[in-house]
Write a structure and sequence with these properties.
Layout lengths: L1 H6 L9 E2 L5 E2 L4 E7 L5 H19 L2 E7 L2 H14 L5 E5 L3 H6 L8 H6 L24 E5 L3 E5 H6 L9 H11 L5 E4 L8 H11 L5 E2 L2 E2 L4 H15 L13 H8 L4 E7 L3 H5 L8 E4 L20 E2 L2 E6 L6 H11 L2 H11 L2 E2 L2 H5 L7 H8 L1 E2 L7 H19 L6 H24 L1
Parallel strand pairs: 3-4, 3-5, 8-11, 13-16
Antiparallel strand pairs: 1-2, 5-14, 6-14, 6-15, 7-11, 7-12, 9-10
InterPro entries: Bact_solute-bd_prot1, SBP
Pfam families: SBP_bac_1
Protein name: ABC transporter substrate-binding protein
């Protein structure tokens, strides 16, 4: 229904006249931008928004207004509401995994050569970051804003005291290390089970590493044994293995990071370069390092033949411009501003996310970033299907529904199997709808 509504829209006007020097005159106009609320650095984000508004007005004469979303479900709802109504933000900053969902609506600009020129040229960007901008190189809607490959952080002192020189490369090995690190008020792992964005990424990684892609062509595979094993492993760290703080059942990722920064936890899993800003101001400053997350699936001592040793999802944020926007020239001017080398390095300094701007990325010299840039080269994209947003939410919902039991005795196999059946049905239905266009 949303696709029909969008295809009926005939809104191609561009707001803000372009001057002879290529600059955009947006006097009297307002550009609306949707971004994810930054739970790690909320005050810094407010200041950054204010600074960008000032710079944008100086460049274009236009006002810049931000609105935020707080969860993946909120993100999807914002997209769907705007698609149906044909009105809403001019620019969306979306997680890379939601770019296929946005693209499938046909409500966002598929970038022409001229559009790429308006934002500084395609060569401005790290080419790896373009891997989930569209279904192919000729049909792209997502303009890379930041890169956010996932890694683990570890407490160097705690690992050394336990006799480990580095984190294990298998999930079983990491658990064995975590068990040895747990005790005396210390825990092996910090996990945010109630996080709005990250739990499903553990399941995707472990399942992919086991040789089970969650989407195989037109078929969902959420009911595969590898998926059940992934959830059992993830839940088991809390309920069976006791290597995480019991309070983590109610933690977001930012709360897990805060706990890790106190120096009493061995590993902080599923974190990114954005954690550097917090950790360098904590008791762990100079006492932590990053490493790839395990790439060998649970129950295995080596990668299965033919499986994908994924270190991370291809992660970050893409900027997309709404096709219904009356301010397209202003929208591209905004994208050009925030993806410039100067602004990308400034964003990295404030929030830690890796630049998508190629020159800015090459100029980074912090040795701590080496494992993170390595993870970027060993990251794999989630399936480019309009159904992925629903599939991602179905995976997350399994965790959400399991939280009450995790708080008690743990999740039974029967309960998990029922939730996976429901998730499988939702995923397959969404894939079927996407196939029909």
């Amino acid at each position: 229904m949303a696709l029909v509504a969008v295809s009926a829209l005939a809104l191609s006007a561009c707001g803000g006249g372009t001057n002879s020097d290529g600059s955009v005159n947006g006097s009297g106009k307002t550009l609306n931008v949707l971004v994810n609320v930054n739970t790690l650095y909320p005050e810094q984000q407010k200041q950054w928004m204010s600074d960008m508004s000032t710079k944008f007005k100086a460049q274009t004469g236009a006002e810049l207004k931000y609105e935020t979303f707080t969860s993946a479900n909120d993100e999807l709802t914002k997209i769907q509401t705007s698609v149906v109504s044909g009105q809403g933000p001019d620019v969306y900053s979306l997680g890379t995994t939601f770019t296929p969902t946005a693209y499938a609506t046909k409500a966002f600009v598929t970038l022409s050569a001229d559009d790429w020129t308006k934002v500084g040229g395609k060569d401005r960007f790290n080419q790896a970051a373009l891997g989930i901008s569209g279904p192919d190189q000729e049909h792209q809607a997502g303009i890379p804003f930041v890169s956010r490959p996932f890694v683990l952080a570890y407490n160097k002192d705690l690992l050394k005291a336990a006799g480990f020189d580095k984190p294990a490369d298998s999930w079983d090995g990491l658990l064995a290390q975590a068990k040895k690190l747990t005790g005396g008020g210390n825990y092996g792992m910090a996990i945010g089970y109630k996080d709005n964005f990250d739990p499903w990424k553990f399941i995707w990684a472990m399942s992919t590493q086991a040789g089970n892609p969650l989407v195989d062509g037109s078929k969902a595979k959420l009911d595969d044994a590898a998926v059940q094993k992934a959830y059992q492993t993830y839940f088991g760290w809390l309920s069976n293995d006791k290597v995480v703080d019991p309070a983590s059942v109610g933690w977001t990722n930012s709360q897990a990071l805060a706990a890790f920064s106190q120096g009493k936890t061995g590993f902080m899993l599923m974190t990114t370069a954005s954690s550097i800003v917090s950790l360098d101001k904590s008791a762990l400053a100079g006492k932590y390092a990053y490493a790839l997350m395990p790439t060998i699936p649970p129950g295995q001592s080596s990668s299965p033949a033919g499986a994908t040793p994924a270190a991370s999802i291809l992660s970050g944020d893409n900027l997309v411009v709404a096709d219904y926007s009356q301010q397209k020239d202003l929208a591209f001017a905004y994208v050009k501003l925030v993806t410039s080398k100067e602004e990308q390095l400034n964003y990295n300094k404030i929030f830690g996310d890796l630049p998508a701007n190629a020159e800015a990325l090459k100029s980074l010299t912090d040795a701590k970033l080496a494992p993170i840039t390595d993870a970027a080269t060993k990251s794999f994209a989630t399936p480019f299907t309009g159904a992925w947003g629903d599939i991602q939410l179905a995976l997350t919902n399994v965790v959400v529904q399991s939280i009450p039991e995790l708080s008690q005795a743990g999740v039974t196999d029967a309960a998990l199997q029922q939730r996976l059946k429901e998730a499988q049905d939702k995923a397959q239905s969404s894939l079927d709808r996407a196939a029909k266009g």
